[in-house]
Amino acid sequence: MEKKIKSLLDRMTLEEKAGQLQQCGPSIVGAFDVDFEELVNMAYDGRISGEEFQRLMSTAEQDYHESELRAGRIGSYNGISDAKIVNRLQKIAVEETRLGIPLLFGYDVLHGYRTVTPIPLGESCAWDPDLWERTARMSAEEAGAGGIHMTFAPMVDVSKDARWGRISEGAGEDAYLNAKYGVAKVKGFQGSSLKEPDTMIACVKHFAGYGAVESGRDYNRVDLSPQKLYEEYLPPYEACVRAGARAVMPAFNDLDGVPCTINQWLLRKVLREDWQFDGMTISDANAIAECVEHGIAADRRDAAAKALLAGVDMDMTSDCYSQHVVHLVEEGILPEEVLDQAVGNILRIKMELGLFEHPFRTDEEKEKKTILKPEFRATARKAAEESMVLLENSGILPLRTECRIALSGELAGIRSEMSGTWAIKCSGEDCVSIADACAQRRIEYETYTEEEIIRCDSVEELFQGYDVILAAVGEKKNQSGEAASRTDLALAPIQKKMLERLAKSGRPVVAVIFNGRPLAIPELKGQAQAILEAWHPGVEAGNAILNILFGTVNPSGKLTTTFPHAVGECPVYYDHIRTGRPAGRSKFTSKYLDVPSEPVYPFGYGLSYTAYTYSDLEIAERKESVTVSVKVKNVGDVDGMEIVQCYFHDPVALRVRPVKKLIDFVKTPLSAGEEKRVVFEIPKEKLGYYDPQMRFVVEAGEYEFFVGGNSSDCLVCRTNLCGLSN
Ligand code: BGC
Fold first, then answer.
1. Residue 383 in 3-state DSSP?
2. 205 ligand 1 Cβ < 6 A
3. What is the pLDDT of residues 354-379, one digit of tens each?
4. Is 642 a pocket residue for ligand 1 (Cβ < 6 Å)?
């Protein structure tokens, strides 16, 4: 392969080399007088309605820059999801360009292509690496049939701040969980051989620390101590790279003042030297040009030079490379070897995918047969069922089969809101709402909007014929995701008013919440007899929700993100560092005056229709590992699945340590009455941390191990361990 790359490089002109670095998207043309970005802004600030935007878009045409492609000035496309168009453009690349180098097609397949599964934050609550891998495999098969070679996923940005809209795109607040999630996704996307057409390159993003944007405001600065970066933010990216992810996307943000897009230390030292990454890197959208706005590059030419020198191989859509790289090399500012390295990294990926031999990995027939296959729907339903978290249940759930239901709130009926963020390919019609699922199952139900309930004269009368009211509340899909940070995490005023009235109806209320982030909803448990956290569950939303509400499925999901009382607490997370004044009854301790110190729902929390008890926590030391084991019993009368979590704490250390840190977990089936011993084999390496001199140490001394069904409710055991010498 390296020989082939070299011989191609020898034959390429500087223009052709620069062309390989260019990823572009189709431009939207015609139909309107302003450019596309302005049109999006007009829809955003209300100058045109959503319907008008859709109407204009449906009449628009796409310009694929074919003359540029023929001239060898494009190496990759982003955002095309149609096998016919993919093949047409690929044909031009291989037959009409001078060297016939195939194109690479990238797309944001974060949680399903057309068969959309729960948003990543939701799916992480399944704590199930096999499921995470299976859904990624399914996405790769479906997206592969649509012509996609690379997905801009997984996103493994640890996020501890619910204000940040993109918390929805990752696996929550814990580094270990994000690492497990990311590795499963990489395996699933990439399959066993990239030459197979049902695989895609995984592009791990956003490297690094994007989830730590100050005040949760998207695209904001990130300032982390080296220890915090290495212990709390880098591990998931590293795990994905070591698991073989073939692409990495630097983040929009700066790290301590240097934007990741031009950060030589991050992209050359950490990524390539320390982690031995030999895949390709691709900038985030327009990020190279944005280095000018950051004030770190004088102009786009300077930005191009800095990004390429830092090791960004491909330019996503900014055109900085295509306009300036040739001159930069000709003028001696950029060594040609640096350019060759970047081109080589991209050609290697194209070869690994087998695109030189088989540039056409799909066709329209295959695409049609693969999209939304019934077995994909079954997997999406299973994923949704496993992701949902039962937050409260006074005993009203599971519902009786023959009960009459009042569906209240518009989210019970809007199909298109079920898919969540980054579900570009999924149309609302693909999704099953709660109302759809009720209709299909011939359940007796009626729907009521928020306004109808708020305005009615008597809620007692309105709901007197019903056994239960299902209140669908939460966020619409555009309230989370990219560029969707919020300073208010409460329910919308209209939903609050509706819930207040429902609570006075005399009927039991079951709240189903749809959201892309933890919400501040401490009041809800006083208004509803049960609360089901459904996230944005994907195409099988309604079916999965009813399966849980009626008890066909016993809920087992557990939160991977802490639920605060109020937005003012954010960021709030379980693995916080110890202070000299831990929260307590005394005034002068670390807490707020106006909210309790314990979160509303802690990390790892979730109920089921049964209950589990924990006993006999035991620890045994081996030379290089520790065995932690515990007995877990299903003490209820239905079968269930328990997520058993193991945490640890280092009570005296060279740097202040977190109060608790997740170190392992097991998801295990337990039938009614069954008891089993769950065993964790923990390599001592996992107990280590970076000392004040940034040396990684695993010290001898006392350790605490905690095992339980959530981060606040655990059995604990102290033990002395021998350390590991480095
Ligand atoms: C996002 C990326 C995404 C890219 C391409 C950017 O705005 O930050 O996560 O992959 O767009 O769509």
1. helix
2. yes
3. 999 999 999 999 999 999 999 999 99
4. no
